[in-house]
Specification:
This protein is mostly helical. It is about 75% helix and about 0% strand.
């Protein structure tokens, strides 16, 4: 008997497809259109081909911003992943204090990005900020508006404070999924704490950790609001990450063609590295299975 296939279910996802087309595909096509054209105003456009892409590939400005962006993403991943695992390992596994810790860890994630930037902008000021005033009282020179190292330290610590909770919560979920039988067997074998972590907890957390790394990389690579509010990309261009440089080019200088080409290359870099992470995650799942 031939099986009847009902295609009416597609009507249920049609609104979602239309929404995605309106909010993502159409703007993307607009950016592609700008990237291959030039304009002198008055809504008059001229075909430029791949000229803007070639200019961006030979632009020291873009490569410098990319280097700063990669360094920022690498630093926060090297800090947040181990720190999130450490916090998850030391959180209570059940009871009132477990729920209390989960709620407290979730609070930074609920704060809007612009508010986070404003909090740390005020917090780091020498005149009224607790951090800046304390460091100044201790004789430590700290001014994130004039010193590049202080600006980098402020932006990194701010991101660690804001997003380490996400890694900790994901790692905690991975730990909760480990059956008690594993720990009982390790206790019988008199395994050390390091052996339990190395051979039981870490392998079981690997799936959620890869998700955490992927999410944090994508977020860090697209970060804009927090560092822009705190430093504005300064002092100089020391904290001008890719997103900040792109906005300056598009809105500050109104170079729509180069900015469109820049944004497409930016998108392709994120897509490529995310694909690498996804491939690694898939291979790990296959090996685990």
């Amino acid at each position: 008997m031939e099986k009847t296939v009902n295609q009416k279910a597609w009507f249920l996802v049609l609104p979602v497809l239309l929404l995605v087309a309106f909010s993502a595909v159409i703007p993307l096509m607009t950016v592609v259109n700008y990237s291959v054209q030039d304009t002198f105003g008055n809504n008059q456009f001229f075909w430029a081909g791949l000229e803007w892409f070639e200019d961006m590939l030979h632009s020291d400005r873009m490569w410098d911003a990319l280097a700063r962006q990669l360094m920022f993403s690498a630093i926060i991943l090297m800090i947040q992943i181990p720190l999130g695992i450490f916090v998850a390992l030391n959180m209570p596994k059940s009871g009132f204090w477990s729920s209390f810790c989960l709620v407290m860890m979730s609070l930074p994630l609920l704060i809007p990005w612009n508010v986070v930037g404003t909090i740390w902008q005020i917090f780091g000021r020498v005149d009224i900020g607790l951090l800046g005033y304390t460091l100044d009282a201790l004789g430590i020179s700290y001014n994130y508006t004039q010193n590049s190292f202080a600006a980098w330290a402020t932006v990194i610590v701010m991101d660690v404070w804001h997003w380490t909770s996400l890694v900790a919560l994901l790692a905690f979920a991975g730990l909760k999924s480990i059956p008690d039988a594993y720990y009982q067997a390790a206790k019988i074998d008199q395994a050390s704490r390091w052996a339990i972590f190395r051979y039981i907890e870490l392998p079981k957390m690997m799936g959620v950790l890869m998700i955490a790394i992927l999410l944090r990389f994508m977020d860090s690579f697209m970060i804009y609001t927090e560092p822009f509010v705190v430093t504005g990309g300064g002092p100089g261009n020391s904290t001008t990450l890719l997103s900040i440089d792109l906005v300056k080019m598009a809105l500050g200088q109104f170079d729509l063609g180069p900015a469109a080409a820049f944004s497409i290359m930016y998108y392709l870099v994120i897509l490529l590295i995310s694909w690498v992470f996804y491939t690694v995650m898939t291979n790990l799942d296959k090996k685990g299975g």
